[in-house]
Write a structure and sequence with these properties.
The protein is mainly beta and 415 residues long. It has a single domain (3-411), classed as Beta Barrel (Porin). The chain is built from three helices and 19 strands. The strands form two sheets. The protein has a 17-stranded antiparallel beta sheet. It is globular and about 60 Å long. The chain starts with 7 loop residues before the first helix and ends with a strand.
Amino acid sequence: MHCLLCAPVILALFCGSCASVEVRNVPQTPAVQEQQSQPAKQPTAQGAKPTEDGSGFGVFEVPVNPKGLGNDPFDAIDDAVSIEERPSGGELFAAPVPFRSPQLGWGLVGIGGYIFRFDPEEKEGPPSTVAIGGFYTENGSWMGFGGGRLHLDGDRWRIKFGGGYADIRYDFYGVGTGAGNEDSSLPFQTQASGFLVEPMMRIAPHWYLGPSYKHSNSETEIRSNVTVPPELKPDQFNATTAALGIAIEQDSRDDTFYPEAGSWLQAKLSFYDDVFGSDFDYRKLESSFASYHKLGEPDVLAWQVIWEDSGDAPFYDLSVHDFRGYIPGRYQDRIRLAGEVEYRRHLFWRIAGVAFAGLGQVTPSYSDFHADNLLPSVGLGIRFRLTEKNSMNYRIDIGWGRNGVQFYFAIGEAF
């Protein structure tokens, strides 16, 4: 399945490459959002107090509340998320989250879950989290999901798991840069289910290594009477994909919500084969590296690089250029190389601003990379801090790419 199935919440819960509630590409098996033990630190450049649990689930705080504002108007925002502390020290949470995607339009996510520690007396390392939820969008797409992340034996062991079912309507633009430039698409509808299991063991400070297994079933149809492009093979419209892989991660970020220092490396090599239950045999590499630098009290510079190689993947599991400024899924091919930089500055009160720029390319082979096919993007954004407890922002971005402008409304930073 492609990333459209990862939709807003799945991205925040399970995807390793971002913590934002934002739709990416076309259906793909969700990957659990990695989290790191966070030392206590002073309020961020935006004045927020960082979360102590490092769970990443604070992203589901809604930015509006129709009830009374009280003495502090942001009390209403804090109250919009239902969080109940249990006698064991755990917390129940539930929240709705509005979002917007260039592919799906406006939508609403609902999620509920539990943040806890297996040993309530243990204070070191991040807590465990389990959650269930779903979303619905204005174009009729919907999804239900569940999953979590467990931290065992003082965070020596980490277990990610998740699964869901989705019915997604989206536009398929074809394969390759040329197809994306033509501005021609087909209306697709994909119904898919899938799950992921990924246990990891700490092998050194900040480093984790372990196997990964993911499995998905998908049925795709074209919602119009048109001729199927030759690159879309009929056997890919009703298929099962399954992979056993190896994953490695290094995470030294000082905060999972709004990092000001540290780095985050993620890499996974997945082997799709009929031995593991897959209809197609191919190899897929997914890797990214992000770094964060505090330039002064109000300023942070963040950057990331991405390398993906999908091998002989079917059309629904290709590498996609999904930087802000581009419609997710418009540019996709076997290989993707990309980089992005973002300058973040606190302006006043709970308001911050960002400026970002990116550059990337998708190609069928490494020898096909060419300067004429680069996909540049630039943009600006506003950040609005939601609560006093977590350094979590509601973000509004405008990005310009090769084909025009795109708007984004999401929770959490882009990376």
